[in-house]
């Protein structure tokens, strides 16, 4: 396994069932335990997309951390945002079609919130990537819907799969669009480990 550039003394837990987040962490040389948690994901307080994503990530991480005090817990949530409307995972084909039609030929934002929790220490941040879709014909949308790829992804597309052909360009972190901002995570984890080390001194 590849070696991560930071020395981590504590076990890691990913409070998410996302195979894409698991894969990104694995490619970094990390092998966290997977402990998904079910939480209320309705935006009751009408939070901004950034605060909404961070709030969900925080709920996931802190919920798992309560029963795992000696481990670093990673919570994350990713949303697609068009004109401040949050697009979650589609509930059916019609819903996925509507999302892709909304994104067609337009710029949208992908917002990921991440929360790292270890005992009393925590770090929370968000990452934004701008994504530009080409103009999509009905046949292109229906072709993509037939692939079954859109249905477990926020915004109804995956940049790492066949959905890449729908995207003309991005501005920002590619891995954020996949679902986990690797660089920002590295910076925040480094700060969290520094906090833990200073506590020991």
Give a short overview.
The chain is an alpha/beta fold and 201 residues long. The chain has a single domain, classed as Maf protein, CATH 3.90.950.10. It contains six helices and seven strands, in the order E-H-E-H-E-E-H-E-E-H-E-H-H.
Write the layout of secondary structure elements.
Blueprint lengths: L11 E3 L4 H9 L5 E2 L14 H17 L6 E11 L2 E3 L5 H11 L3 E12 L2 E13 L4 H9 L20 E5 L2 H5 L3 H19 L1
Parallel strand pairs: 1-2, 1-3
Antiparallel strand pairs: 3-4, 3-5, 5-6, 6-7
Describe the overall structure.
Strands 1, 2, 3, 4, 5, 6 and 7 form a 7-stranded mixed sheet that branches. Strand 5 (107-118) and strand 6 (121-133) form a beta hairpin. This protein has helices at residues 19-27, 49-65, 93-103, 138-146, 174-178, 182-200, and strands at 12-14, 33-34, 72-82, 85-87, 107-118, 121-133, 167-171. It is an alpha/beta fold and 201 residues long. It starts with 11 loop residues before the first strand and ends with a helix. It is elongated and about 60 Å long. The chain contains 6 helices and 7 strands; from the N terminus they run E-H-E-H-E-E-H-E-E-H-E-H-H. The longest helix is centred in the last third of the chain and has 19 residues, at 182-200. The mean pLDDT is 93. Helices cover 35% and strands 24% of the residues. It has a single domain, classed as Alpha-Beta Complex (Maf protein).
């Amino acid at each position: 396994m590849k070696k991560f550039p930071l020395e981590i003394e504590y076990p890691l837990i990913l409070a998410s069932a996302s195979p894409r987040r698991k894969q990104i962490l694995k490619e970094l040389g990390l092998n966290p335990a997977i402990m998904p948690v079910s939480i209320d994901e309705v935006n009751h307080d009408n939070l901004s997309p950034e605060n909404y994503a961070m709030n969900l990530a925080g709920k996931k991480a802190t919920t798992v951390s309560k029963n795992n005090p000696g481990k670093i817990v990673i919570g994350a949530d990713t949303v697609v945002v068009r004109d401040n409307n949050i697009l979650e995972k589609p509930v059916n084909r019609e819903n996925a079609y509507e999302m892709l039609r909304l994104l067609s030929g337009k710029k949208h934002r992908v917002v990921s919130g991440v929360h790292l929790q270890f005992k009393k220490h925590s770090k929370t941040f968000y990452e934004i990537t701008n994504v530009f879709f080409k103009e999509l014909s009905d046949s292109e949308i229906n072709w993509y819907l037939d692939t079954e790829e859109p249905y477990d992804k926020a915004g109804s597309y995956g940049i790492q799969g066949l959905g890449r052909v729908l995207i003309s360009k991005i501005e920002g972190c590619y891995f954020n669009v996949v679902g986990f901002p690797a660089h920002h995570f590295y910076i925040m984890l480094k700060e969290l480990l520094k906090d833990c080390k200073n506590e020991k001194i």
